[in-house]
């Protein structure tokens, strides 16, 4: 039998488990009938099952029935219809930037791929290589930007004392950033905290960033999924486009169309004029070509089918609002359950926060207690996916939080 030390890869060390995906691995090994996975960032029904939207099934059926469809390669920039419709969805159908051809949009591999393509483009063609990202942020952000060749720094975002936004800290850190630095902004439903700035606060952020020439890079993973309203959830992005300045926006259809595994996303860059946009697109092609050549056709075709048909679009918005409303209702139920148990502390942040995730404020010790004693799985920072909850599992979670808080008190 061969000895592994003979391998040319013998010096490869085992990588640490991804902290989010590792939660699911541990959950899968647990044999308890009451186990609950609140780590996964994917929508679940009241029965705890993954959901395929009815409108998505209908669009897929239409595509399957269309015998004229072939499996040829897309262009490097992806499906043209998909790109046009994606830009309209985030910037608004009447956006002057679109009408003036100042936006270039390329189809990418969901949100992650869109961020990576944007980051590689900036590393090659933008004069400032520092990107400021919120503290905390999605665990993949620092890795994406660092590997693309950017230097990552943080700006204050979450205030553990209020379980809300550290707005003054955010402004101070951005004011201290070097002129021209890139700033990553979560368009809505901040991951992992569920804490968003108000429209007034967004306006102050915009003014500060424009006055310092900071370049906004929006990550829009939850449009329509946060409030149930597609326009409201794109408000922050549209504010920055309305002033005529430049910005980048990465979009994902994983959450709002439930197309997680189809990897459907888009990167849009809003430029000063049509000539710049055309040159930017030519360089985006040079980033994409050696990376994955061109994107997959199926998921983008589903999105384009739904977005260009008024009836299907309306059907989608109804299903989307139902998902958002269920999550909002889970927040209320959890808050009510903790109130009913007299759990120590102020839990109002659960109903103030928005989107799929809630930063509970539970510490690492309390999280491991809940996993050990109650078979509830979440990331060690106390982030839970509200979409992983149901009316049936809510009492179990509320009991576990109450026990964890009481025990640690």
Shape assignment: globular
CATH-defined topology of the largest domain: Aspartate Aminotransferase, domain 2
**Spans of at least 5 consecutive residues with low confidence:** none
- What portion of residues belong to β-strands? 5-15%
Query: Count the helices. How many?
Result: 15
What's the alpha carbon Rg, rounded to whole Å? 22 Å
- If you average the pLDDT, what whole number results? 95
Order of SSEs, N→C?
Answer: HEHHHEHEHEEEHEHEHEEHHHHEHEEH
Percent helix range: 40-55%
How many separate structural domains?
2
Distance between the termini: 56 Å
Q: Identify the CATH class of the largest domain.
A: Alpha Beta
Strands, count = 13
How does the major sheet shape up?
7 strands, mixed
Task: Give an account of the 3D structure.
By secondary structure, the protein is α/β, with parallel strands linked by helices. The chain has two domains: 19-52 and 325-408, Aspartate Aminotransferase, domain 1 (Alpha-Beta Complex); 73-308, 3-Layer(aba) Sandwich (Aspartate Aminotransferase, domain 2), CATH 3.40.640. Helices cover 45% and strands 14% of the residues. The protein is built from 15 helices and 13 strands. It has helices at 19-29, 54-65, 80-91, 96-99, 110-125, 140-147, 167-176, 199-212, 235-242, 274-288, 298-308, 310-341, 349-352, 364-374, 394-408, and strands at 36-37, 103-109, 130-135, 151-156, 158-159, 164-165, 182-186, 215-220, 247-252, 264-270, 357-359, 376-377, 383-385. It has a seven-stranded mixed β-sheet. Strand 8 (215-220), helix 9 and strand 9 form a beta-alpha-beta unit. Helix 11 (298-308) packs across helix 12 (310-341). It is globular and about 65 Å long. It starts with 18 loop residues before the first helix and ends with a helix. The relative contact order is 0.16.
